[in-house]
């Protein structure tokens, strides 16, 4: 019994931290100026509890960014299990674009040396996730061989440069179609065109 108690406390602490990070993510998505006190209120905890987990605003913002990227990277197997490889690719990059727009909206908060080091550290796992998606698309002939993950990440930058507004989602979908048409293998083009019509 004495051994399980610390383990359950650790599990509770992890769950509480996940809850705070999700609340903070949603709050920052609404406004990058959301205060820590407002986030604590939304999370149903005292400000002191929040500050024990994240002593500064910058620490919370960085933790939200790292949590988002870790969750996105971990989502690849689940997406590939539930969707076609090409649809998994599309959904994954739209989610990445949401995270990048959120990061940009937080302004100077992620410009500290520690934050920049963490962002650089996220490049390798993100690239690995993209490689997994590419391999799956190549394997089912929806993408031509020889596509490089680093090139795809650079190319997909258009997603987080689309101006917000009522047409943003439709424009992103149209541009994604253009990109995927360019990446398609010859025998995968017909199947993909049929997928879009459904």
Automatic annotation (TrEMBL):
<dbReference type="InterPro" id="IPR049445">
    <property type="entry name" value="TetR_SbtR-like_C"/>
</dbReference>
<keyword id="KW-0238">DNA-binding</keyword>
<keyword id="KW-0804">Transcription</keyword>
<dbReference type="InterPro" id="IPR001647">
    <property type="entry name" value="HTH_TetR"/>
</dbReference>
<dbReference type="InterPro" id="IPR009057">
    <property type="entry name" value="Homeodomain-like_sf"/>
</dbReference>
<feature type="domain" description="HTH tetR-type">
    <location>
        <begin position="14"/>
        <end position="72"/>
    </location>
</feature>
<dbReference type="InterPro" id="IPR036271">
    <property type="entry name" value="Tet_transcr_reg_TetR-rel_C_sf"/>
</dbReference>
<dbReference type="GO" id="GO:0003700">
    <property type="term" value="F:DNA-binding transcription factor activity"/>
</dbReference>
<feature type="DNA-binding region" description="H-T-H motif">
    <location>
        <begin position="35"/>
        <end position="54"/>
    </location>
</feature>
<keyword id="KW-0805">Transcription regulation</keyword>
<protein>
    <submittedName>
        <fullName>TetR family transcriptional regulator</fullName>
    </submittedName>
</protein>
<dbReference type="InterPro" id="IPR050109">
    <property type="entry name" value="HTH-type_TetR-like_transc_reg"/>
</dbReference>
<dbReference type="Pfam" id="PF21597">
    <property type="entry name" value="TetR_C_43"/>
</dbReference>
<dbReference type="GO" id="GO:0000976">
    <property type="term" value="F:transcription cis-regulatory region binding"/>
</dbReference>
<dbReference type="Pfam" id="PF00440">
    <property type="entry name" value="TetR_N"/>
</dbReference>
């Amino acid at each position: 019994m004495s051994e399980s108690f610390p383990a359950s406390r650790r599990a509770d602490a992890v769950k509480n931290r996940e809850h705070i990070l999700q609340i903070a993510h949603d709050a920052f998505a609404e406004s990058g100026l959301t205060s820590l006190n407002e986030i604590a209120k939304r999370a149903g905890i005292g400000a002191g509890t929040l500050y024990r987990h994240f002593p500064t605003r910058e620490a919370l913002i960085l933790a939200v960014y790292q949590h988002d990227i870790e969750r996105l990277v971990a989502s690849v197997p689940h997406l590939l299990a539930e969707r076609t490889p090409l649809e998994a690719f599309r959904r994954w990059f739209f989610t990445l674009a949401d995270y990048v727009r959120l990061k940009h909206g937080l302004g100077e908060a992620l410009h500290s040396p520690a934050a920049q080091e963490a962002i650089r550290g996220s490049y390798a796992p993100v690239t690995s996730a993209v490689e997994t998606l590419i391999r799956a698309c190549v394997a089912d002939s929806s993408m031509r061989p020889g596509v490089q993950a680093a090139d795809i990440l650079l190319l997909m930058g258009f997603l987080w440069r689309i101006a917000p507004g009522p047409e943003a989602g439709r424009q992103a979908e149209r541009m994604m179609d253009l990109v995927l048409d360019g990446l398609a293998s010859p025998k995968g083009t017909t199947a993909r065109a049929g997928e879009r019509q459904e």
